[in-house]
Design goal:
Layout lengths: L1 H25 L8 E12 L3 E4 L4 H15 L4 E4 L9 E5 L8 E5 L4 E5 L2 H13 L7 E11 L5 E7 L7 H13 L4 E5 L1 E2 L2 E2 L8 H4 L4 H6 L20 H12 L4 E8 L4 H6 L22 H17 L4 E5 L12 H10 L4 H18 L3 E5 L12 E4 L4 H8 L4 E3 L27 H6 L9 H4 L2 E6 L9 H8 L2 H10 L7 H9 L2 H6 L14 E4 L3 E6 L7 E5 L12 E2 L2 E6 L3 E9 L6 E10 L16 E8 L14 E5 L13 E12 L3 E6 L7 E4 L2 E4 L10 E7 L2 E11 L10 E4 L7 H4 E2 L1
Parallel strand pairs: 2-3, 2-4, 4-6, 8-9, 8-17, 9-12, 12-13, 13-14, 14-15, 15-16, 16-17, 18-24, 18-31
Antiparallel strand pairs: 1-7, 5-6, 5-7, 10-11, 19-22, 20-21, 20-23, 23-24, 25-26, 25-27, 27-32, 27-34, 28-31, 28-33, 29-30, 29-32
Family: Belongs to the glycosyl hydrolase 20 family.
Organism: Mucilaginibacter angelicae
Catalytic activity: Hydrolysis of terminal non-reducing N-acetyl-D-hexosamine residues in N-acetyl-beta-D-hexosaminides
Length: 756
């Protein structure tokens, strides 16, 4: 009887699993809805379908009509009703809801119904768009389902720097379009900086006559060499009519535009146009001037500029920058020194605070609120300021504790000018690589905040700085797919985050990217990892999620290119392994002749069991903690540990903040009960050093998403000596040190195999 019950349980479990897989296979909506239930059957959308709307949803109905026409050639009809008939193919209903931007959607074989208030119906339409097939056909098949959804955060942002390289109105519109498709709702428009002033100001025409043509003047030798740009720059500016056009376009897509006018630093373009704005030097020294002088002329000038900006932009916030101000210049400025004496300011940081507070007072008089980068905390935070935390999280945490609103946009996670993979294989960028996994794993509400303080976190934002981004194809490559991770982490419930599911959904977006002619970076081939193995053959199957992709690969350490022989996926590699192999891949797909390159090293080693009896061992592994300033682990051999203990998962050590570091050494054994092939990896995002039988199997300091590494080992029954070390800090806090599984199977529980 027990056997029969067990069999029934197994069959039931398998059925449930298949049901979950079926749902997963049908729906790849980003961001993940709060609630999604699969229905039975499908709705067939025909070319001449009617989109039923009421007065409030008519603009959204026309938006959907235009989308279907542009992308599928459908000639649908939008009809306005007081009560939309139930038989109408697509019904867009405006209904009141307490939840901002919430919507429900029901797809049945008979019709599609979307209900919500304000932006809610629009977001429901975006979910519907992701359910449409990407292949054009006379009838579009949409899987039946029910969705109930609303955003976690109100600020779901993405920036665009048009100062370093100018982007046209049409290019900006397309950028906003794709933001809207993924329910991102704040477009941060970085309009001014050292390399260009991009917004028309009537009272000060030289800002665009001169300040928008910095690359032109640089070529003539009248401006410094633009050595921080990838090329000679791209000039241009937006007229006020063009600004209004973009604002209207964004409003129709429920996207708010946040304009940024940089001050008091990053102002070289404005100073080049109007030199009297620049910080004066009482020593007479000639140097690059990027700082505004805190003079009455400057304040009047910037108030005039902001008056015209405010007249254009209807939103609540104005961003005034405030970052990377070279405040020491003020100590040589007669104007700033006099200001410090008059206002009893003790340091240049207090001059920064004075400057920001004065601009804040002006903005408040115009019913606007100030947003600034986290440097505006220096010298004292303006009373009503909202802080964008970019230098890590510290500024945002401090501001939230002071009960100021915060947008989290920290390095490295939210900076998309960084490479997306190994920097040697990617276009040039700033900072170390930031992968989509790193973006997705970011949590805007820090554990350091109480629940009440966390309420001051408005949301998060991805940023792109365009010194190294000369054109729109490169821009799209750098921002996507990482922006999809921002969309999900700011919209979906925290407990709904699932990295593996998101990765699968993300790869299913490329049909849409191709439909939109949008140059998102192609995904990597899974499994191209650095491998340590004791096996005599190397076997790997190269699979790829995009149909029609091809791969060129080599095992001699040399990177293939477009001229190398190609093969369709999947590709089976099965070769003898005597010492080491340098695997190189070059993957292409049918998207703007784009390619991605990957590398991996496969090295053969010998791993021997230890001469140790299991009966003499205890569960868990031993660890030692060394609190020190020493960064060389070898120099700690003679030191006594500050702490010792035993653990099954992670060493329970909190990071220190007083200039010291916590080195952790581990020692023990891995117990193998059954001879088989095993895979050993680490759950640390930044890897520890791990040794098996004193052979290095995991190299320290590599990011697991950028340079994945694993040991593929055939292990006999017995115990194997394990050791390792790492620095305990926030990068690995609460992460699992060691992960072991039977190759191709489930992970094993550390408490069953770790011994000491």
């Amino acid at each position: 009887m027990k056997k029969i019950l067990s069999l029934k349980y197994i069959v039931l479990s398998a059925s449930l699993l298949l049901s979950v897989i079926a749902v997963k296979a049908q729906f790849h909506i980003i961001p993940q809805p709060v609630s999604l239930t699969a229905g039975k059957g499908s709705f067939l959308l025909s070319k001449n379908a009617v989109i039923g709307v009421n007065k409030e949803t008519e603009p959204i109905g026309k938006y959907l009509q235009d989308y279907l026409n542009q992308n599928y050639g459908f000639q649908t009809t939008v009809k306005v009703f007081e009560q939309i008939p139930a038989k109408t193919a697509i019904r867009l209903n405006n209904v009141w809801s307490n939840a901002e931007s919430a919507y429900t959607m029901h797809v049945t074989p008979a019709s599609v119904s979307i209900s919500g208030n304000g932006a809610g119906v629009f977001y429901g339409v975006q979910t519907l768009i992701q359910l449409l097939p990407t292949d054009k056909s006379p009838v579009l098949k949409i899987s039946a389902c029910s969705v109930a959804d609303q955003p976690r955060f109100g600020w779901r942002g993405l920036s665009l720097d048009v100062s370093r390289h100018f982007f046209t109105v049409d290019e900006v519109k397309k950028y906003i379009d794709v933001m809207a498709h993924y329910k991102l709702n704040v477009f941060h428009w970085h309009l001014t900086d050292d390399e260009g002033w991009r917004i028309q100001i009537d009272k000060y025409p030289r800002l665009t006559e001169v300040g928008s043509k910095i690359s032109y003047y640089a070529k003539r030798g009248e401006f410094r060499k633009l050595d921080n740009l990838i090329d000679e720059g791209r000039d241009g500016f937006y007229t006020k009519d063009e600004i209004r056009e973009v604002i209207k376009y964004a409003q129709d897509r429920f996207v708010t535009i946040l304009p940024e006018i940089e001050m008091p630093g990053h102002s070289e373009a404005a100073i080049f146009a109007y030199p009297q704005l620049g910080c004066q030097d009482s020593t007479g020294a000639k140097h690059r001037v990027r700082m505004l002088d805190p003079s009455e002329y400057t304040f009047k000038f910037m108030e005039d500029v902001l008056t015209e900006v405010i007249a254009l932009f209807p939103n609540q916030y104005i961003h005034i920058g405030g970052d990377e101000a070279e405040m020491v210049d003020w100590l040589k400025s007669p104007t700033a020194v006099a200001l410090m004496k008059r206002e009893h300011l003790k340091s240049e940081k207090e001059v920064q605070s004075y400057f920001i507070k004065r601009i804040e007072k002006f903005l408040l008089s115009k019913n606007k609120r100030l947003v600034g980068w986290d440097e505006i905390l220096q010298g004292g935070l303006a009373e009503s300021a909202t802080v964008m935390s970019w230098q890590g999280e510290a500024g945002g945490i401090a501001a939230a504790k002071m009960h100021h609103h915060v947008v989290m946009t920290p390095l490295p996670y939210m900076y998309f000018d960084a490479p997306q993979a190994n920097e040697d294989l990617e276009p040039i960028g700033w900072n170390p690589p930031v992968t989509w996994q790193m973006v997705y794993n970011y949590e805007p509400q820090s554990k350091e905040l109480t629940n009440a303080e966390a309420e001051y976190i408005l949301g998060a934002q991805g940023n792109i700085w365009n010194e190294k981004v000369p054109n729109v194809q490169h821009l799209e490559y750098m921002v996507y797919p990482r922006a999809l991770a921002v969309a999900e982490l700011t919209w979906s419930p925290k407990n709904e985050k699932d990295l593996e599911r998101f990765g699968w959904k993300m790869k299913n977006q490329y049909g849409l990217f191709k439909l939109w002619d949008f140059n998102a970076r192609l995904p990597d081939i899974d499994g191209v990892d650095n491998v340590i193995t004791n096996k005599s053959r190397f076997k790997l199957t190269l699979n790829y999620p995009l149909q029609g992709a091809k791969v060129r690969y080599a095992l001699n350490g040399k990177m293939p290119d477009n001229n190398s022989p190609s093969a369709p996926f999947p590709v089976n590699i099965n070769v003898p392994l005597n010492d080491s192999i340098g695997l190189r891949t070059f993957t292409t797909w049918t998207l703007n002749d784009q390619h991605v390159r990957q590398t991996a090293s496969i090295r053969r080693v010998s791993i021997k069991p230890a001469h140790q009896k299991v009966a003499n061992l205890k569960p868990g592994m031993a660890y030692e903690v060394f609190k020190t300033r020493e960064h060389d682990i070898a120099k700690l051999e003679s030191e006594k540990p500050a702490e010792t203990g035993e653990t099954n998962l992670i060493v329970p050590v909190k990071p220190v903040t007083d200039g010291y570091i916590n080195w952790v050494k581990i020692k023990g054994f891995i117990k193998i009960e059954k001879e088989a092939d095993y895979e050993l990896t680490t759950g640390f995002e930044v890897s520890p050093a791990l040794f098996l039988d004193e052979v290095p199997v995991i190299k320290m300091g590599l990011n697991t998403y950028v340079e994945p590494q694993k040991a593929l080992l055939h292990l006999k029954k017995g115990v194997y000596a394990l050791s390792g070390h790492y620095i305990a800090d926030k990068a690995n806090e609460n992460q699992t040190l060691i992960e072991l599984k039977i190759a191709g199977g489930e992970k094993l529980y550390p408490k069953f195999y770790l011994m000491h």
